[in-house]
Every structure is written in structure tokens, then in C-alpha cells.
């Protein structure tokens, strides 16, 4: 039998999972930062969830940003990935997330042009939102419902 040895280039993966951490993967644009601060973070941090929501730019360190992202992905209980514009960095980080088997919520901003999701992600449910007050409320509601589902006690038969 062959054994796969894993040696991540970002450092060891021996981090303790923080059951309260929800880590958000998204591009750092003004528009998406506003969505993060106005809709995503407040929803994730609702008292009933008892979660802390962070993005890489919330972390203050002197390490390379990818090391902070790697550490946060490893430590997070839940990952929220904004796939708007299929940003290459977010897609790379999402691949890491899926490899680690993290609970992941995919979101994306509706655009005038249809987003062609990669085949390997096309079967996974996503939350679509618009950059408007109505779209923000829809994002809040669907994100809340998804978090409730993830955090509810699992019933095993």
C-alpha cells in the first residue's frame, strides 16, 4: 500500500479548528469589501450563530498573505467563497478548501454576462446576489438559512 505524504508549501497543516471561525475568500475590491462589511460579516456574526467572521485583510501579521490564508482555512469551521468574476486567487484558495474537506458556502454576484463556472464546481449549490439593497437582503437571508443548516445538529440514522 502506498501512503500519500503531504508537505504543503505554506507550512504544516497542524492547526486546531476554531469552531467559531468563518473565513471569507473574496477579492479585495471596494465593491466586494462593502458587501462583506454590510451583509456577509453581520449575518455570520448574528448572536444565534456564535461565529466570528474574518477575511485575510482582517489579519495583522508579518507573514506572506498566503500563509495567513492557509492558516485561516485550516483553522476555520466554515469557509465562504465569493466566486464573483471567478477570481484566480479565490479559485486557488477554494481548491485548498475543498481538498481539506471544509464546510463551504459558495456565493457570487450576478453580472450582465453569464458566469461560466468551472465544470468541477458547476454541481455545487451557490448563492447568487445582486449589488443592490434588495440583493443584499437576499444574500443575508440565504446565507442565514445556509448557516442554520450547517450549524444545526446532524441527525444520524
Structure in a nutshell:
The protein has 157 residues and is α/β, with parallel strands linked by helices. It contains four helices and five strands; from the N terminus they run βαβαβαββα.
- Give the number of helices: 4
What's the mean pLDDT score? 91
Strand residue percentage:
15-25%
Overall form: globular
Order of helices and strands: EHEHEHEEH
Kindly state the percentage of residues in helix: 25-40%
Number of strands: 5
Might you state the CATH topology name? Rossmann fold
Q: How many individual domains? A: 1
Top-tier CATH class: Alpha Beta
Distance N terminus to C terminus?
33 Å
Low-confidence stretches: none
Strand order, main sheet: write it out: 2-1-3-4-5
CATH architecture group name: 3-Layer(aba) Sandwich
Question: Main sheet?
Answer: 5 strands, parallel
Please name the defining characteristics of this protein:
single chain; 157 residues; alpha/beta; Rossmann fold; 5-stranded parallel beta sheet; 4 helices; 5 strands; globular
What would you say this structure looks like, in words?
The chain has a single domain, classed as Rossmann fold (3-Layer(aba) Sandwich), CATH 3.40.50. α3 (88-100) links the parallel β3 and β4 (103-109). The protein has a five-stranded parallel β-sheet with strand order 2-1-3-4-5, sandwiched between helices. It is α/β, with parallel strands linked by helices and 157 residues long. It has four helices and five strands. Helix content is 37%, strand content 19%. It has helices at 30-44, 65-75, 88-100, 133-151, and strands spanning 18-25, 52-55, 76-82, 103-109, 126-129. The mean pLDDT is 91. The longest helix is centred in the C-terminal third of the chain and has 19 residues, at 133-151.
Amino acid at each position: 500500500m502506498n501512503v500519500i505524504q503531504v508537505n504543503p508549501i505554506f507550512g504544516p497543516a497542524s492547526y486546531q479548528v476554531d469552531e467559531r471561525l468563518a473565513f471569507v475568500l473574496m477579492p479585495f475590491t471596494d465593491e466586494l469589501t462593502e458587501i462583506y462589511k454590510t451583509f456577509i460579516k453581520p449575518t455570520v456574526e448574528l448572536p444565534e450563530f456564535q461565529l466570528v467572521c474574518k477575511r485575510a485583510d482582517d489579519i495583522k501579521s508579518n507573514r506572506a498573505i498566503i500563509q495567513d490564508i492557509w492558516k485561516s482555512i485550516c483553522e476555520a469551521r466554515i469557509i465562504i467563497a465569493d466566486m464573483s468574476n471567478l477570481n484566480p486567487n479565490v479559485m486557488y484558495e477554494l481548491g485548498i478548501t475543498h481538498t481539506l474537506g471544509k464546510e463551504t458556502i459558495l456565493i457570487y454576484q450576478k453580472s450582465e454576462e453569464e458566469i461560466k463556472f468551472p465544470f468541477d464546481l458547476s454541481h455545487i449549490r451557490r448563492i447568487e446576489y445582486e449589488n443592490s439593497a434588495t440583493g443584499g437582503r437576499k444574500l443575508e437571508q440565504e446565507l442565514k438559512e445556509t448557516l442554520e443548516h450547517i450549524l444545526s445538529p446532524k441527525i444520524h440514522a
